[in-house]
Design a protein that fits this description.
heterodimer, A: mainly alpha, Non-ribosomal Peptide Synthetase Peptidyl Carrier Protein, Chain A, two-stranded antiparallel ribbon, globular, disordered N terminus, B: alpha/beta, 2-enoyl-CoA Hydratase, Chain A, domain 1, four-stranded mixed sheet
């Protein structure tokens, strides 16, 4: 499944959202995606330029089920989120993955 | 025997600590060989306890601590055995796993599970038998049994009930999702979360600290604070075996064994 990117303007800098007394820095879609691509490239030792937003990460990274869980853990730790496994069911491209993560930021 | 080198696990006493290493590729699937060797280990525990004050259980494999029961072996047995004999074999296997984990749970030593990566099913249940869990940041904990039409069968539910609140247990069991080390520590199950690759080092440092205390006092403290829920453990065996006789389990095992995609744990 490849969800298209939101049509809203891609912010070049983080947008601020006020939640009660807290100021939460919201990451723009492209920044979240970029961080995922960088993290995947470093962790799985794949040249960054070989990874594109719409690539199938199972194929591009050459990962199996256990390595997918490893990637999930890396993403949770990096973004300080909790991402249930079942939310990744059917997700195979980096862009959709970024959208799932952004929904938890 | 204070040293053993097996096909699935090995142990040795080092500096007053028993170190039990799991090392069966690909991810310490716990099948008949592992259980047989684990049985030998717990038979040696009384003797080992005279030479050591602590036990560390860890995996020497990169993939993780343990992916749990060897489902491929179970499926093969299911396909090649007469049904009644197979179900009797399942009960014998579960009872053996309980005997092993109960012995570790009740050991007079202070026990530490040093875990990383995959800590699933029976592997999670083995860790739950230990007094302390030290996890590195890569650790993921999961009870995937409902996918197979089962409940965890090696003492998972009674020990989780002993250690945690009911809500997070329901989450783990009913969704079958995996939880990262940070979340599990937040729930109160993990004593330390350390950097990637540091769990064994941290466990050894903890074992050095444990050595400072009188072993008899430590054993008494453990018996007082950590009762073993034998009655619930027995009920779990019965429920597990009853569920195993249903066709849903064969279908679940077949689906798991037949899957060739990269997502068996994400469904």
């Amino acid at each position: 499944m490849n969800e298209s990117a939101p049509r809203e303007v891609l912010h070049s800098s983080p947008k601020q959202e006020i939640c009660g007394d807290d100021v939460v820095l919201m990451k723009s879609p492209d920044r979240t995606l970029e961080e995922i691509l960088n993290l995947a490239a470093v962790h799985f030792k794949v040249p960054r330029e070989k990874l594109g937003p719409d690539d199938d990460f199972f194929k591009t990274l050459g990962i199996d089920s256990l390595q997918t869980l490893d990637l999930l853990t890396k993403l949770e730790n990096h973004f300080h989120i909790e991402l249930p496994d079942y939310e990744l069911q059917g997700v195979s491209d980096f862009r959709t993955l970024a959208n799932r993560i952004r929904a938890r930021l | 025997m204070n040293e053993f080198q097996g096909q699935a696990l090995s142990w040795a006493v080092k500096d007053g600590t028993v170190e039990l290493a799991l090392h069966r590729e690909p991810c310490n699937e716990l099948g008949s060989i592992a259980l047989e060797e684990a049985d030998r280990f717990v038979d040696s525990l009384a003797k080992l306890g005279r030479e050591a004050h602590a036990l560390i259980i860890f995996s020497s494999l990169r993939a993780g601590f343990s992916a749990g029961a060897d489902l491929r072996e179970l499926y093969h047995l299911l396909q090649t055995s007469e049904r009644d004999a197979f179900l009797k074999g399942v009960r014998a296997r579960v009872e053996r796993a309980h005997r092993v984990i109960n012995a570790i749970d009740a050991a007079p030593l202070t026990t530490i599970a040093a875990v990383h990566g995959v800590v699933f099913g029976g592997g999670f249940e083995l860790a739950l038998g230990c007094d302390l869990i030290i996890a590195d940041k890569t650790a993921r904990f999961c009870f995937p049994e409902l996918r197979l039409g089962l409940i965890p069968g090696w003492g998972g539910i009674p020990r989780l009930k002993r250690d945690l609140g009911n809500a997070i247990i329901r989450d783990l069991l009913l969704t079958g999702r995996s939880l990262g080390a940070a979340k599990v520590q937040q729930a109160g199950l993990i004593s330390q979360v350390v950097a990637e690759g540091e769990a064994l080092r941290a466990a050894r440092a903890t074992a050095v600290q444990l050595r400072k205390f009188d072993p008899y006092t430590a054993a008494m403290a453990k018996r007082f604070i950590k009762p073993i829920p034998y009655e619930e453990l027995q009920r779990e065996i019965d429920i597990f075996c009853e569920l195993f006789s249903r066709p849903a389990v064969e279908a679940g095992l077949r689906q798991f064994v037949d899957r060739v995609d990269a997502q068996p744990y994400l469904s």
